[in-house]
Design brief:
The protein has helices spanning 35-46, 48-55, 70-84, 100-107, 136-143, 161-169, 185-197, 225-237, 251-254, 257-268, 273-276, and strands at residues 20-27, 60-67, 88-94, 114-119, 147-154, 173-176, 201-207, 241-247. The chain is α/β, with parallel strands linked by helices. It has a single domain (20-276), classed as Ureohydrolase domain (Arginase, Chain A, 3-Layer(aba) Sandwich), CATH 3.40.800.10. It has an eight-stranded parallel sheet, with helices on both faces. Strand 4 (114-119), helix 5 and strand 5 (147-154) form a beta-alpha-beta unit. The longest helix has 15 residues, at 70-84. The protein starts with 19 loop residues before the first strand and ends with a helix.
Length: 277
């Protein structure tokens, strides 16, 4: 839905401030995921760094793998905070968007507006008593008034009318999947530009399943990876991105060609060694 933004101010692009990317994997046990599914997710995510380094020779830092039990959440947050205070951009592979809830307290500031750009087919705003799959932004926006959410690629065929109404109540902005076709790329770019102008810092969350066609008959239900890489590039060039989170737990999504394209786009935005000095 175009034209949702109420204020009009612009910022010049300041370039990419990061000197490297730190790849972190985190597996979070969360309802209603079954134990066997969590164990599969843990195995896939723990293999991500080795797989990624086989695909590319770019300079990635191995930020480690974390199984987010109650005892490990503090260590995960400490690890993230180290990167937030450095010139390395943390890129987190995780099995659920709800992992973001552990990072947001570290980025919260009453003097800055944090924007979350969620790229995926669903709002993930399910109102539940405790975090479960699909509830991340219900909790994020309820806990932090300074945050603003922009969802890109919402599929009206899989979202209820209530989900749209609740997203509006939460103050979310969104573009539907039909509005994100490659033919609309200039409109998408303008909406992202407007959104970035309202935010001091940005978190990018990308649902990997939303980039993968379920079948040949449903090819129109996945986001165009070209649109996604354009958004990534635009956000990184703003100099405002503090965290990138890639969400998936099945091998066919985590190790997909579209995921590799995203990693290549991220790595390509890191200055070469002769620029870092």
């Amino acid at each position: 839905m175009f034209g949702l933004f109420r204020r009009n101010k612009t910022h010049d692009l300041v370039g990419v401030p990061t000197h490297s990317m730190a790849l972190i994997s985190a597996a979070q046990p969360i309802k209603p995921m079954k134990l066997v599914e969590f164990e599969m997710a843990e195995q896939s995510l723990s293999d991500v760094f080795d797989w990624m380094t086989e695909q590319s020779h770019n300079r990635w830092i191995n930020g480690g793998h974390f199984s987010l039990s109650d005892q490990m959440i503090g260590r995960y947050q400490l690890n993230l905070s180290r990167y937030f205070g450095s010139n390395s951009l943390p890129v987190v592979f995780t099995n659920s968007t709800e992992t973001l809830l552990h990072a947001l307290p570290l980025l919260h500031s009453t003097s800055k507006e944090l924007g979350i750009i969620h790229i995926g087919n669903q709002f993930e705003n399910k109102a539940t008593l405790e975090p479960e799959v699909g509830s991340a932004y219900h909790f994020a926006l309820a806990r932090f008034n300074e945050f603003r959410l922009f969802c890109i690629g919402i599929d009206p065929r899989v979202q209820s009318e209530h989900a749209f109404e609740y997203a509006e109540d939460l103050g979310c902005d969104w573009l539907t999947l039909p509005e994100c076709q490659f033919s609309h790329r200039l409109q998408v770019k303008q909406q992202v530009t407007n959104y970035l102008s309202h935010c001091d810092e940005i978190v990018l969350n990308i649902d990997l399943e939303s980039l993968c066609a379920r079948s040949r008959l449903e090819a129109d239900r996945n986001l165009d990876v070209q649109i996604v890489t354009r958004i990534i590039r635009q956000c990184l060039m703003s100099g405002k991105v503090k965290l990138v989170q890639l969400v998936g737990w099945k091998d066919k999504h985590v190790f997909a060609k579209s995921t590799q394209v995203i990693l290549q786009e991220l790595a390509g935005m890191v200055p070469s060694s002769d620029q870092v000095a």
